[in-house]
Design brief:
CATH topology of the largest domain: Immunoglobulin-like
CATH superfamily of the largest domain: Immunoglobulins
Number of helices: 1
Largest sheet: 5 strands, mixed
CATH class of the largest domain: Mainly Beta
Distance between the termini: 108 Å
Shape: elongated
Low-confidence stretches: 1-39
Structural class: alpha+beta
Helix content: 10-25%
Length: about 240
C-alpha cells in the first residue's frame, strides 16, 4: 500500500516537472520570436550623420544610403532642406521592401567658417499604411577659410576716440583687401595696405540708435568669400 502511494507521488512530481520545463521552453521560444521581430522600420540610413572633418571652402559631395526596412514598398514624396547651400538628388523614389535608394548631395561651404552643418528631411509613404513618415539626415564639417581676420571683433569705449588695426592673414592663397566701407557715422575705415585696415571711432558722432548698428565691410579678391563684415561693439 505504501509503495503504491510513493509511486503516485513520484509520478505527480515528474509530470509537474515536465510541464514546467515545457512552459519555460515555450516561453523562451516565444520571447526569442518577439525579439527577432523588433527591428527598425521604414527608410533607415545605413550611416547618419556624415562628418567630413576638416574641409576647405568650396563644395563637397556625399551620398546617403536608405534601406527600406518596412515589410511593404515605400515611396519618397518630398525632401525638405535646411538651407539653399545643399543640393539633393534621389536615385530611386519607389523602394521595394529590403531594397535601398541613394540620396546624393552637394554641400556649398563657400561662405562657411568653422564647425558648420546642414540637414534635410526625407518624407515618404508606406503601402498599406496611413500617414506620411520621415527620416532626418545630417551632414557636418569643420570649414577652413582661405583667410583669417585678426582680431575678428572690436570693442570701443563710447566716450573715447580710438583707432585700431585689422589685419587680413591669408591661409591658402595670397588674398588681398580691395576696398573697405561703412555707413555708420561714428566710424571711419581706411585701407592702409593690401592686408591691413585702420578703424577709427569718433565719440562726438555717436548717437545710440536701435535701428542702426556699427559695422564695416572688407571687400577681398577671395573667390569663395569676396566680402567680410565686422560688427564692432561700442560700450
Amino acid at each position: 500500500m505504501n509503495i503504491k502511494i510513493y509511486r503516485c507521488i513520484y509520478l505527480a512530481v515528474a509530470v509537474s516537472a515536465m510541464v514546467g520545463i515545457c512552459v519555460l521552453v515555450i516561453g523562451k521560444v516565444r520571447s526569442t520570436s518577439l525579439e527577432d521581430k523588433i527591428v527598425p522600420s521604414g527608410l533607415v540610413p545605413v550611416s547618419n550623420p556624415i562628418d567630413f572633418g576638416k574641409i576647405e571652402q568650396g563644395t563637397v559631395d556625399g551620398t546617403f544610403e536608405l534601406v527600406n526596412r518596412a515589410s511593404d514598398p515605400t515611396r519618397i514624396v518630398q525632401v525638405d532642406k535646411s538651407c539653399r547651400c545643399t543640393e539633393v538628388e534621389i536615385s530611386k523614389f519607389e523602394i521595394p521592401s529590403g531594397e535601398s535608394t541613394k540620396i546624393r548631395f552637394r554641400w556649398d561651404t563657400s561662405s562657411g567658417r568653422g564647425i558648420r552643418g546642414s540637414d534635410f528631411t526625407i518624407f515618404y509613404t508606406v503601402v498599406g499604411q496611413e500617414g506620411i513618415f520621415q527620416t532626418h539626415l545630417d551632414i557636418r564639417g569643420d570649414i577652413l577659410p582661405f583667410f583669417e581676420i585678426v582680431p575678428n571683433s572690436l570693442i570701443f569705449d563710447k566716450d573715447k576716440a580710438e583707432t585700431k588695426i585689422i589685419r587680413l592673414i591669408p591661409r591658402k592663397k595670397d588674398v588681398t583687401i580691395q576696398n573697405v566701407n561703412t555707413t555708420f557715422p561714428a566710424l571711419k575705415v581706411e585701407k592702409t595696405s593690401l592686408h591691413e585696415v585702420s578703424v577709427s571711432y569718433y565719440p562726438e558722432k555717436f548717437e545710440a540708435d536701435p535701428y542702426q548698428h556699427p559695422y564695416f565691410t572688407i571687400t577681398t579678391d577671395c573667390p569663395t568669400e569676396p566680402s567680410y563684415t565686422i560688427f564692432p561693439k561700442i560700450r
